[in-house]
């Protein structure tokens, strides 16, 4: 089967708030397998469903101890502050220092429908917060100030159009995100 394409900045699916997963079943499991394949190939340490065009609340990740899946995740607690140079597979080639909570407590379900509860710190915590943002239609660009956004959009627009894709900022006058 063909590797899933990772959607990049300008694709409206990345701005959508995803819906809860209703059924944890075989088709979800095989989709997750394909997402993991695309994630490893990128390579990345996390990939959320909207990044492959699916507005559902789940993501795959591998924080160094094997492939994992988190379904209908929710962050129930956060603590501290931590700055980290953060990138995104959907915004290729760019990264920014972004401050977010240092520690989080995240809950959700695994692919067998079992409840999962994880206390994460620093990079692992950052990974979860980043993927959660994707499920809420939020991108790294939303954390930048106006000047940084302008610069980033210019670079991205040129890059995406160079690849022969449609203008990610859409028709003149309409700008997203
Ligand atoms: Ni991302």
Question: How would you sum up this structure, described in words?
Answer:
The chain has helices at residues 26-41, 122-135, 146-162, and strands spanning 46-48, 58-61, 68-79, 82-87, 95-100, 103-109, 115-121. Mean pLDDT is 92; it is low at 171-177. It has one domain (12-164): Alpha-Beta Complex (Peptide Deformylase), CATH 3.90.45.10. It has 3 helices and 7 strands. It is globular and about 45 Å long. A 5-stranded antiparallel β-sheet has the order 1-2-3-6-7. A two-stranded antiparallel ribbon has the order 4-5. The structure holds nickel (II) ion (NI).
How do you describe this structure in short?
The protein has 177 residues and is an alpha+beta fold.
Q: Any descriptors?
A:
single chain; 177 residues; alpha+beta; Peptide Deformylase; 5-stranded antiparallel sheet; 3 helices; 7 strands; globular; disordered C terminus; binds nickel (II) ion
Rounded to an integer in angstroms, the radius of gyration calculated over CA atoms is 16 Å
Helices and strands, in order, run as HEEEEEEEHH
Q: How many strands?
A: 7
Structural class by secondary-structure content: alpha+beta
What strand line-up does the widest sheet have? 1-2-3-6-7
Counted up, domains total 1
- What is the CATH level 1 assignment? Alpha Beta
Hetero compounds: nickel (II) ion
In CATH, the architecture is Alpha-Beta Complex
CATH homologous superfamily - what is it? Peptide deformylase
What is the global morphology?
Answer: globular
Mind describing the biggest β-sheet?
Answer: 5 strands, antiparallel
- Portion of residues in helices? 25-40%
Q: Uncertain regions: pLDDT < 50 for 5+ in a row? A: 171-177
What share of residues are in beta strands?
25-35%
